[in-house]
Every structure is written in C-alpha cells, then in structure tokens.
C-alpha cells in the first residue's frame, strides 16, 4: 500500500476520517470504483457524505459530523480489504494516484512544518528524496518544528514568495 493510502487509513492523527471521506467519495463519484456508497461507507455515513461535500460545509463542520477514524467510517469489508491488501482496485489506485510518476521540469520548493499533522513533513521529505535522485531542481524547507498546518500558513506563504523571487531574479 502506498504511503498516502496508509496514512489516510491508519495514521492520520484525527484527520483520517475526513481524508477518507473526501478521498473515497471522490473515487466513488468520479471513477465509479464501487457500485454504491454503502459499499464504501458504513451507515449512516453512506447517506451523509454527499451532503457534507456539497460545497456548503467548511472543513470543521465536516470533521465534526464524521467519526474519529477511518475504520469507524468505512464499510468493514472495504477497510479489511485495504488492511489485508486484497481490495480489487488497489493496484489501479497505486498506478493512478502515485504522486511521483512525473519529473518536475521547473524548480520545485517543498515547504512545510515538522509540527504539521495534517500534511506531515515526512511526505515532503520523501518527495525530496525521490525527485533529488531524478536530478530535479528541488529544495526542501521546514518553517518550524512545532507549528501545525494552520499556524505555519503565513511562514509557508512567505517562503514560497521568496523562492519565486529568487528564481525569477536568476
């Protein structure tokens, strides 16, 4: 199982249900991997999810309507199939959602905070290692060891702007 799917299902530190709801609803809606939402989500979430992702609800509202983790959200058979690596769409998901099946042509800044539990800095570090071995012009920077996703926002934006200023000046 790839690191994104494993993170969403098993290690999202309180955000797993939110990420799973978004991820699996998107796959159901756009790719039709499953015949019915009841194949994906446990009741009552199979009926609730479409309304939560109607564009009228913010992240906090959606999170508060969901259970604490992915296991409580997903249909037990689906969760077990992912856990055991037997989900029929697993190979297709790996192929279609591998973030590293491209070579960046432009300079790339991977910036975040080591304190971020929403988007772990380890994801950026992994991408940095992969893209570096491909010979890409890639930089990795953490703006903080403690700040979470929201707290680090302004520092991340600042680093992004500075990165582009430097690249445009050279």
TrEMBL record:
This is Putative secreted protein.
């Amino acid at each position: 199982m790839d690191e994104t799917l494993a993170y969403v299902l098993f290690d999202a530190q309180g955000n797993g249900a939110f990420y799973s709801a978004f991820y699996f609803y998107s796959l159901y809606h756009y790719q039709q991997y499953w015949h019915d939402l009841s194949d994906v989500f446990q009741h009552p979430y199979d009926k609730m999810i479409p309304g939560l992702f109607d564009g009228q609800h913010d992240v906090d509202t959606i999170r508060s309507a969901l259970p604490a983790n992915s296991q409580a959200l997903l249909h037990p058979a689906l969760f077990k199939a992912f856990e055991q690596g037997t989900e029929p769409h697993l190979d297709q998901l790996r192929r279609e959602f591998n973030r590293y099946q491209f070579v960046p042509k432009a300079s790339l800044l991977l910036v975040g905070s080591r304190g971020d539990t929403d988007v772990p800095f380890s994801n950026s570090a992994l991408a940095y290692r992969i893209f570096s071995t491909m010979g890409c012009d890639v930089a990795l920077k953490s703006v903080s060891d403690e700040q979470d996703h929201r707290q680090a926002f302004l520092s991340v934006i600042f680093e992004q702007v500075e990165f582009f200023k430097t690249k445009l000046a050279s």
